[in-house]
Amino acid sequence: MRDAVHWLVVLAEEENVTAAADRLGLTQPTLSRMLARLERSLGQQLFDRQGRRITLNDKGRGYVDHVRRADAELALAEQSLRVDQPRVIRFGFLHSFGTWLVPALIGRARTRDPGLRFELVQGAADEMGRRVLDGSLDLAVVSPRPTDAALAWRLIRRQHLHLALPRDHPLAASTRLRMADLRGETFVGLEQGYGMRRLLDSACAAAGFEPTIAFECQELSTVAGLVGAGVGVALLPVEDAPHYPAGVVTVPLDGTDTARDIGVVWARRRSLPTHALAVRDLLRSS
To answer: Where does the HTH lysR-type domain lie (predicted)?
Structure first.
């Protein structure tokens, strides 16, 4: 029964008929005919075609949102028939998601399926991606979007990034700053391999300089604490600012909407167990 809707969810994720057909174990012509039949029966075109790429149009997005919910409910229904089988999800995430995003997800998932068990792993974005691909993790929440095409990705939300400075810094009273204004400053950042470090390096490179790193660590809370202590400046999510030490001031970047995309990843070429699919589908863009 679930096959009747799941193919459309996969097609919307892949935005490519050939890639979706590969995931589903179908031929490309078969999947194209399925889509054509559905659109004829609805009397609406759900996708805009751009060469080999297809993207959901406004009507398609609304329709597929309902289909995703139906797909997730059917996955849970199938799962309920296998109550004697252990349902374990191997789930990875960045350290900075451990205080809000992941606990909320686990709470929602266990409310829907009390027998579900999570095996949790924290680490850098690059490490989480590697572990998903080698099969030691089913899902991972990472940022930014991985560049490896073998990883499928679904956007969950965007976090806006501001510059964080010590309260007594000469630029702390600024209403806006350019990244170039921080040339020559000393930065506090995460270690190489972490998504926020990649974003910092990219932002500095776009401004024409390489950051001088005073201290590398693994936690954004540590970065904020060291900024407050005057060790250096940093690029940090502004949504986390209420939790930063009193000695930290955040200033928006001028002329750019610098943000980090947060999303869930899974291995494109490997099928997920039904209970993992249900959890993945709880993670929706906000």
So the answer is: 8-57
Cα–Cα nearest to 195, from 247, 242, 260:
260
Q: DSSP states of 134-152 as a string?
A: TTS-SEEEESS----TTEE
Contact at 8 Å (CB) between 48 and 77? no
Residue owning tokens 């009747």: 4
Crossing angle between the packed helical segments 3-14 and 17-24, to the nearest 10 degrees? 140
Main-chain phi, psi angles of 34, to 5 degrees: -60, -45
Q: Is the pLDDT of residue 282 over 60?
A: yes
- Does residue 272 come out as left (phi exceeding 0), alpha (psi in the -120 to 50 range) or beta? beta
Distance CA 200, CA 35 (A): 42
Which helix (H) or strand (E) element contains residue 264?
A: strand 259-267
Half-sphere exposure (CA, 13 Å, Cβ side) for 214? 15
The 3-state DSSP composition of the chain as helix, strand, coil percent (nearest 5) reads 40, 25, 35
What's the pLDDT score for residue 106?
93
Q: Other CB atoms closer than 10 Å to residue 134's CB: what's the count?
A: 9
Q: H or E stretch including 22?
A: helix 17-24
The Cα–Cα gap between 177 and 251 comes to 7
- The pLDDT tens digits for 211-259 are 999 999 999 999 999 999 999 999 999 877 777 888 999 999 986 668 8
Strand partners, 250: 164
CB atoms within 10 A of CB 91: 23
Enter the tokens of residue 206.
Answer: 């776009």
pLDDT, tens digit (0-9, with 9 covering 90-100), for 130-187: 999 999 999 999 999 999 999 999 999 998 899 999 999 999 999 999 999 999 999 9
DSSP letter at 265?
E
